[in-house]
Amino acid sequence: MRNPRAIALLAAVAFVSAAGGYALNLWWRSGDGSEHPPAGDPKAVAEAVFAARLADLQGSTQTLEQWRGRVLVVNFWATWCTPCREEIPVFVRMQERYGAQGLQFVGIAIDQPDKVAEFAREFRINYPVLLGGLETMELLRLSGYRSGVLPFTLVIDRSGNIARQELGGLREARLDSIIRPLL
After folding, report:
1. What is the mean pLDDT of residues 129-158?
2. Which residues touch 178 (CB under 8 Å, ≥6 apart)?
3. Which stretch of 10-14, 67-71, 72-76, 96-100 has the lowest confidence by average pLDDT?
4. DSSP labels, 42-76
């Protein structure tokens, strides 16, 4: 025999969870009404990226400002994301190939620090990996990112302008065609 109280409690939890998820989705898609540059304003997005203060894998706070003047590829990813796992070896190769010419990859992981550190060792990531939190979600929202799907990549030219915004995994030939003209 089923317990009616347990069923009612389960139904209430499910309803509250669904309502909360729906409300979060509406907030994500519409913005939170705070004073920010309009979503998708490329110059404002680039400046917000350069100003972001994120922890690295050693716990030190970093800003992306230190890489201004380079061709900057900022990749938002997670360890559980299959397309992320496929594109990161491409990024490692391209960082090695073009780093001396002014290319800088920076990975911003939206994941648990211990999992990110293990992943970085396993994949031999040769570029900075930073840890994203709630402020990273706001940065993504400002960039016009609305899908909730990872990976998401911004390519910023040497002048500090957004050159490309790419949703989904990047293949080497596609990324090479984006980066080489900017070097």
Report:
1. 86
2. 155, 163, 164, 166
3. 10-14
4. HHHHHHHHHH-EEEETTS-EEEGGGGTTSEEEEEE
Task: Give per-residue burial for 87-109: e unless 16+ CB within 10 Å, then b.
Answer: bbebbbebbeebeeeebbbbbbb
Whose tokens are 């716990």? That residue is 59
Report the interhelical angle of 134-142 vs 42-51 (nearest 10°). 160
Whether residue 89 is preceded by a cis peptide bond, meaning omega within 30 degrees of 0, is no
Query: Where in the sequence numbering do the catalytic residues fall?
Result: 81, 84
**For 57-75, how does the pLDDT look when each residue is reduced to its tens digit (9 = 90+)?**
999 999 999 999 999 999 9
The first and second tokens of residue 165, run together, are 């915004």
CA distances from 77 to 12, 32, 140, 164, 169 (A): 34, 23, 12, 17, 10
* Per-residue three-class SS string for 113-162: HHHHHHHHHHCCCCCCEEECCHHHHHHHHHCCCCCCCCCEEEEECCCCCE
Please calculate the CA angle 105-160-149 and round it to the nearest 5 degrees: 50
pLDDT, residue 12, reads: 46
What average pLDDT does the structure give for the chain?
Answer: 83
The percent of residues in the chain predicted with pLDDT above 70, rounded, is: 79
